[in-house]
Amino acid sequence: MDVDGESTSAVATEARLIPVLSGRSKAMYQFTQQSLPACKPVLTPAWVITTFFLVGALFIPIGLVSLHASHSVVEIVDRYDSECVPDLFKSNKVEYIKDMSIHKNCSRHLKVHKHMKAPIFIYYQLDNYYQNHRRYVKSRSDRQLLHGLQHNDTSSCTPEESSNGLPIVPCGLIAWSLFNDTYSFSRGTHKLRVNRKNIAWKSDRNHKFGKQVYPFNFQNGTLIGGGKLDPNIPLSDQEDLIVWMRTAALPSFRKLYGRIEDDLNVDDVVVVNLLNNYNTYSFGGTKELVLSTSSWLGGRNNFLGMAYTSVGFSSILVAFIFLLLHVRNPSLNIRAVC
Amino acid sequence: SANEMLPCDMVLLSTSDPTGVAYILTINLDGESNLKTRYAKQETLARTPEKDKISGLIKCEKPNRNIYGFHANMEIDGKRVSLGPSNIVLRGCVLKNTAWAVGVAVYAGRETKAMLNSSGAPSKRSRLETLMNREIIILSFFLVSLCSVVSVCAGIWLRRHRDELDYMPFYRRKDFSEEKVDNYNYNGWGMEIFFTFLMSVIVFQIMIPIALYISMELVRIGQAYFMIRDSQMYDEASNSRFQCRALNINEDLGQIKYVFSDKTGTLTENKMEFECASIWGVDYSGAKASFQGNQVGYSIQVDEQVWRPKMKVRVDPDLVRLSKSGKKTDEGKRVHDFFLALAACNTIVPIVTATSDSAVKLIDYQGESPDEQALVYAAAAYGFMLVERTSGHIVIDVQGERQRYNVLGLHEFDSDRKRMSVILGCPDKSVKVFVKGADTSMFTVIDKSLNLEIVHATEAHLHSYSSMGLRTLVVGMRGLSASEFEQWQSSYETASTALIGRAALLRKVANSVENNLSILGASGIEDKLQQGVPESIESLRMAGIKVWVLTGDKQETAISIGYSSKLLTSKMTQIVINNNSKQSCRKSLEDGLIMSKKLVTVPVATNSTQGTSGDFTSPVALVIDGTSLVYILDTELEEQLFHLASRCNVVLCCRVAPLQKAGIVALVKNRTDDMTLAIGDGANDVSMIQMADVGIGISGQEGRQAVMASDFAMGQFRFLVPLLFVHGHWNYQRIAYMILYNFYRNAVFVFVLFWYVLFTSFTLTTAITEWSSVLYSVIYTSLPTIVVGILDKDLSRMTLLKYPQLYEAGQRQESYNPKLFWLTMMDTLWQSIAVFFASLFVYWESTIDMSSIGDLWTLAVVILVNLHLAMDVVRWTWPSHASIWGSIIATCICVIVIDAVPTLPGYWSIIELAKTELFWFSLLGIVVAALIPRFVVKIFAQYCRPCDIQIAREVEKFGNFRDLRGAEIEMNPIFDHPRR
User: Fold this and answer.
1) d(Cα A272, Cα A292) in Å, to the nearest integer?
2) pLDDT number for residue B979
3) Do A101 and A182 sit in the same domain of this protein?
4) Which of B253, B138, B249, B126 lies closest to B818 in space, CA to CA?
């Protein structure tokens, strides 16, 4: 796809028509006569075949590398929402979860199949939970999160705008429904080191959630939606809230809970003591605990690798078909000349 | 009074001329620029209204459109006088050479013939835009169905979860903040569905590309700018640029199938020029060779003033020398007689006009026939200057010597005799008859016994003149003996005073005197075609455009122009329809149809209409005149005429009234889908220009009416070729691509929004920020399509002019049709699926938040849409580079700026996202995967079924002679399908 010679010849003929032209007026003339110097790529078979081969040559390695990265990630997923309900309440989970008097303790035993290198990311995963529901995502006040009670207009936070006549900080459905299951991990007899700091974006902590804004009148209403916040800690340090407030894009999502800073070996059994507080039963949602290592590409997901390899292979295929067509029938039209 | 335009149609009563003659200029009515005569009736011409009252009653027909017909009678002083077309002066005519004229207004205001002949200016809309509106209706069906799907699904979802809604954390129907527990923002099931529908309309409304209308206007302005600035459409003679008067039909110029052209002033310059003469068997055609600019021209001295003819004529130096030599030699005598005949045998009125230099006066020859004008100018140039004409005598200045000739009798031109004669009493008391006329009629009355070889030589010259496209006239004379003269005079007087059958009697008298003539010679007059007209018509024909010539001229003139402009060729079979009644019209139409079928079916079988050669094996030309059209248009015969005309390669309509021109355009326009273009320069072309899909005005001599009514105006007919082939083609390709691209651009965005809505429990959440949604069609993607729409060229000007066949791509609607629309929509669907579902699967069960994935989609869609455009750009100039890559960069900047606002939920997400490798790999994968199918389809289409444009583009790039040949063979031959 080279620069054509036509433009130069056209320029030459036009230069003959208008003999004396200064640089500026020549440029203007070229512009008005629509004869600006131009590159006009023509898709010749050579170009096309090369392009497809190049796409293939680029995409297949990327695909294989990403597949490898994905496979190197070790992931333990444990769904506990139904298992952690006592048999007594199996038929009426909603009543169980709403009953504040029942202890929600639950312990799970996770077996490690493969060596997991620290840091091991702890996620909780919710399914069928529409954190992207329009009613839900609108019900927040970013100004209040930054400025606290100084910001009065929290009309966007309905129905969790105020309680008992007093404003709520942080207001809105999102904050109200803060996830409040807690996990602690032990291997054998000693606890695993879990780091719960730095799970939220630094930018959010520094600029989006106010350092002087403390929770106020939060979860004081008739209906408790989820976790409570320590009113003595500013919002910028309430990392669980910050993570939760980054509403998930898709109805099946994970959120970072913390990191285990010990390696896990094969056949280790991790005992998880959790408090099953959060109500996903009322709408048929599920809760999972995920322990996962991480690769350079993030978590375990084969799709990207598969997609890259298939695109790569199909472009190689197209290149071959085209090559075949070209070789078998070079005189199809004048392209054969080039 | 003189030089004033008449405000109404009126019957002449009397004029300043004692014989009741008024000279009028009808240029605004029929485009003819010569003077015409109108007469007041004998009964009224003597009365001047200032002195005595006239009382009478005029009964006339109802107002109608026929400008060549008028029937009325006038009762005056108890007598009944019939009035005809020669007694009426129509609105729009200009009185010339007549100091005053008095008349009775018969039609006024809207009832005048001129007004009835002008149709109201219709608003024009381009073909492409009409088609586009159809597609937009389809798009709105898409929109409605998307919205319905969303609202139905939302309804089902609400129904299924109706028991859970109260406490569902992300729905929370109940509001506990007040004392009374109430439903919060919930209006019942049905209303929720309804509101969902309305909201989805708001979210998906970009599906209807409103911005397209604005960008189309901008693109058209840009295209108009380039058309106006095109130096190849700049007329140096009149110093006029191309004018774009209508801004919304630029692209129609690329789809023209029929061109309706006026003749006078459009094809021709409306200037007759004496080119050559054959006198006494000797050809004097050296005038062509003689140098033009250096001549002074012949002039005479009258009362210390210099009188010279208004127009200069190129002269043959030999002939000048001969004419100056006087009657001494035999040759000189013949030349003298020849020019005397030219100067005398006509109905031209010389008018002396003053110039800025008081010593110089110009003689302007005015008359009905431009041929006569040219002849008189020629005679003047050779020293035989007609100075004065009254009804009784003429004064001719022969080589500086004033001679007075008595006009004893004048037999006017009529179409039966095809000649005219004048009987002159010469200063030497001899009586001579001078005759001039068409060669066919003249050779029958020439005395061949005298100078047979001279007759043959003249015939040979005539043949060569007419093959050069010149209009020929033969001149003859003879002296009358006293007895002959007396005999003629008595019969002439009887005939001219006869009440019944005067015309026939006069013709008989004329025939009796016009015989046994000795041949003087022949003249060749060039009806000067505009520069490049034959070539342009040739190119237009090669591009599959049918050229119809509609003219107010006589049939003979029209045909001769047809020949000289290469519209008609000697190989063509002419079908002439020239009738006076409906029955005979029907008959000749049927005959013509049979004949054309016979002639046309043969070549269709062999189909030898090869690409560039452009010769049609058995072409048929239809010549039809205005009188026949009166009986054909607006009746059931129209259908037959259309069938016949569509079989003919050339159609010539002569003697047509302005509205008939429009009628013919409408005939074609209403019966085919093909685009029509009308080109004309006079006020008589206005209705045709307005009727056609595209109207072009020639800004020539004939006033401004045509230009005012036109959509485009230009200086010369030949500019039609670059206008259609270059600009029309480009405009069509550009706008067509732009419309499809805009549909795609908006739809792909809407589909990405739509897919996401399916994963938000149908609640119209948009991951893409509202700001980005708004800016999408304003900043992110708008500029490249406009720049490409203005600047991209699929082929160079040279190629387009070289291969007129490339124009047919527009006629075949190759760049915009339903098939392309649906293909584009399929592509759109795939691309949106690639964008959405690839990222969905990559980020399923991940920690991705809404703003981050929204940013990914924004960037992916914008890059995709701009690369898609970049893939289709043919010619990369710096503005296209700047706009396409600039838009992508501008989008990145905008996204970063939007994400830098801490009070928006998406604060800093693009930065956090850009830190992950996954984002970059998804972006690359999405864009490539989305574009690959399109690329593959495009390449296979180009490789296996290349279109003409594609081939020409490759020829342009790699072409050598061999390739050109190859390309031509693949070009589709011209088919003349009569499409309905």
Assistant:
1) 15
2) 36
3) yes
4) B138
Instruction: Indicate if A142 and A28 belong to the same structural domain.
Output: no
The answer to whether residues A30 and A175 belong to one domain is no
Sheet of B573-577, strand order: B243-244, B712-714, B694-698, B675-680, B256-262, B546-550, B650-654, B620-625, B573-577
- Find the mean pLDDT for residues B243-270: 85
Q: What is the pLDDT of residue B473?
A: 83
Residue A308 to residue B921, Cβ atoms within 8 A: yes
Interface predicted TM-score (ipTM): 0.92
- Please tell me what DSSP assigns to residue B164: T
Q: Which residue, of A272, A293, A314, is where some domain finishes?
A: A293
Residue B107, helix vs strand vs coil = strand
As a whole number of angstroms, the distance between CA B285 and CA B274 comes to: 10
Handedness of CA A8, A11, A16, A21 (dihedral sign): negative
A3 in the same domain as A122: no
Q: In chain B, whose CA is at the least distance from the CA of A226?
A: B169
CA B641 – CA B636 distance, rounded (Å): 9
Q: Which residues form the domain of A190?
A: 74-293
Contact A32 B229 (CB under 8 A): yes
* A188: exposed, middle or buried (Cβ count in 10 Å: 0-12, 13-18, 19+): exposed
* Residue B119: DSSP 8-state: P
Same domain, A6 and A148: no
Nearest-CA neighbor of B4 among B90, B96, B87?
A: B96
CA-closest candidate to residue B300, choices B426, B427, B402: B402
A217 touches chain B (CB under 8 A): no
Task: State chain B's mean pLDDT as an integer.
Answer: 81
Q: Is residue A43 part of a domain?
A: no
Q: Which residue has the tokens 């939920």?
A: B905
Task: Report, as an integer, the average pLDDT of B809-837.
Answer: 93
Q: pTM for this one? A: 0.83
3-state DSSP call for residue A262? coil
| A residues 24-63 closer than 8 Å to B (CB) | 32-43, 45, 48, 55, 59, 62
Cβ contact A304–B842 (<8 Å):
yes
The encoded tokens of residue B454 equal: 């001279």
> Given this model, what pLDDT does residue B1 score?
62
The domain tally of chain A equals 2
| Position A68 in a domain | no
Catalytic positions of B: 262
B29 exposed, middle or buried (CB, 10 Å; 0-12, 13-18, 19+)? buried
Pair (A30, A110) in one structural domain:
no
Q: Which is it for strands B675-680 and B650-654: parallel, antiparallel or unpaired?
A: unpaired
Q: How many helices (H) and strands (E) does chain B have?
A: 34, 33
A33 and A103 inside one domain: no
Q: Which long-range contacts (CB under 8 A, 24 or more apart) does B962-967 make?
A: B962/A337, B963/A334, B963/A337, B966/A333, B966/A334, B967/A334
Residue A6 lies in a domain: yes
Question: Is B466 strand, coil or helix?
Answer: helix
Closest approach of A21 to chain B, Cα-based (Å): 15
Mutate to test the interface with B, among A333, A335, A337, A338 (most CBs of B within 10 A): A333
Residue A260 near residue A192, CB atoms below 8 Å: yes
Question: What gap in Å lies between CA B916 and CA B667, rounded to an integer?
Answer: 68
Does residue A308 form part of some domain?
Answer: no
Q: What does R_g of chain A's alpha carbons equal in angstroms?
A: 31
A251 shares its domain with A203: yes
pLDDT tops 70 at residue B23: yes
3-state helix, strand, coil in chain B (%, to 5): 50, 20, 30
Taking an 8 Å cut-off on Cβ atoms, the answer to whether B852 and A249 are in contact is yes
CA A277, A283, A288, A293 torsion-angle sign? negative
Q: Tell me what pLDDT residue B399 has.
A: 77
Mode of pairing for the β-strands spanning B360-366 and B349-354: antiparallel
